[in-house]
């Protein structure tokens, strides 16, 4: 039998666990909702809290960017749907920013536990600040965890999404601190012939196994 204290973590390479939940935009079957698009599923510790409010506002202000990248946003916290609605209304009144993306009401902690967002060393009752990047095939591709008292970095979330999409599209890897427009890493050669061809190429080469090119 599973130990009550076992924490399930949704990991890179896993199929994103499916669930049914109530959200601020209505009931959601997650696998249906995320079909054929990229998805960023992110948790926050609680409604009506300052750091969370800045983060959710950051996601809302970048809605056009995520739409352009064929990426759905789905938020979550361990609060009721009425609390979510009251918070959305409060932020809209105070700042004029509307959270249009769905926010899951995970009052029974079902989704938080399914994804490993509830990390008892940090809190028994509030989800940590997790970010799951899920590709159009429903696979988890990148995971971030931040503690309760440190807000996430929107620039890094956007950079990571662009990096994943670029890597998939061009079948390349991306070096340290890569940003859109920078050179990308070409896969290492698999044969001596490919290695010799590489030497004659216009790639920026450190050695045969580390070569970069413009896209
Ligand atoms: C916040 O979002 O401000 C916050 C939430 C839970 C614990 C600490 C800070």
Give your account of this protein's structure.
The protein is α+β, with helices and mostly antiparallel strands and 215 residues long. It contains 7 helices and 10 strands. The site of benzoic acid (BEZ) has 9 residues, from helix 2.
Bound small-molecule species:
benzoic acid
Which bin fits the share of residues in helices?
25-40%
Which residue ranges are poorly predicted, with pLDDT under 50 across at least 5 consecutive positions?
none
Total strand count, please?
10
Q: How do the strands of the widest beta sheet line up side by side?
A: 5-4-3-6-7
Termini, distance in Å? Answer: 51 Å
Shape annotation: elongated
Q: Label the structural class.
A: alpha+beta
Strand content: 15-25%
How many helices in DSSP terms? 7
Order of helices and strands: EEHEHHEHEHEEHEHEE
Rg estimate, integer Å: 20 Å
Summarize the biggest pleated sheet.
5 strands, mixed
The residue-averaged pLDDT reads 96
């Amino acid at each position: 039998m599973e130990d009550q204290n076992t924490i399930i973590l949704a990991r890179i390479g896993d199929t994103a666990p499916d669930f049914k939940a109530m959200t601020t935009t209505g009931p959601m079957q997650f696998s249906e909702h995320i079909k054929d698009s990229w998805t960023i599923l992110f948790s926050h510790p609680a409604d009506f809290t300052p750091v969370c409010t800045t983060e959710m506002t950051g996601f809302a202000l970048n809605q056009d960017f995520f739409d352009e990248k064929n990426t759905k946003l789905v938020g979550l916290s361990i609060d009721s749907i009425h609390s979510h609605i009251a918070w959305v209304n409060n932020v809209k009144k105070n700042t004029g920013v509307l959270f249009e993306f769905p926010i899951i009401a995970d009052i029974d902690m079902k989704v938080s536990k399914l994804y490993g967002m509830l990390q008892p060393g940090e809190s028994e009752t509030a989800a940590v600040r997790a970010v799951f990047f899920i590709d159009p095939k429903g696979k988890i591709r990148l995971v971030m965890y931040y503690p309760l008292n440190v807000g996430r970095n929107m620039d890094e979330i956007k950079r990571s999404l662009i990096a994943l999409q670029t890597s998939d599209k061009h079948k390349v890897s991306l070096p340290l601190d890569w940003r859109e427009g920078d050179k990308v890493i070409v896969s290492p050669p698999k044969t001596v012939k490919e290695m010799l061809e590489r030497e004659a190429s216009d790639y920026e080469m450190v050695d045969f196994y580390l070569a970069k090119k413009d896209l």
